[in-house]
Amino acid sequence: MEVNHVMNPTFPLDAFLFKIISELLTADKIDNSELFDMIGEMVGKHDPRELVTSKGKEIKWLVVVLQDLENNRINCTLFGEMVDEILPHLEDGRLEPFIVVIQYFKAIRWNGMHF
Fold this sequence. Notes:
By secondary structure, this protein is mainly beta. It has a single domain, classed as CATH 2.40.50. Helix content is 14%, strand content 37%. The chain is built from two helices and seven strands; from the N terminus they run αββββαβββ. The longest helix has 10 residues, at 81-90. The mean pLDDT is 83.
């Protein structure tokens, strides 16, 4: 697969704003208002859970583990419909790597871990 950047002056945003996992793991400070994109192999997952929002809405959430080519790993929390879309791919017993591109990733530290 090949990814090419296409310049389109009528589209005001960059197509992707990738960060690498090692940058996030070694950063002294994380700007939790910045949204960026991640690419990696999904190498693990936790059990899906349900969450009740402050407005009383129930949504699913799932923590997955992304790994880069240098074997750096980071947890990524998925919410809502994305959980239902990704679970079948994680549970189908596939043998080949499951590579994903996640857009609008927001990095935070919680209990010393990166999510």
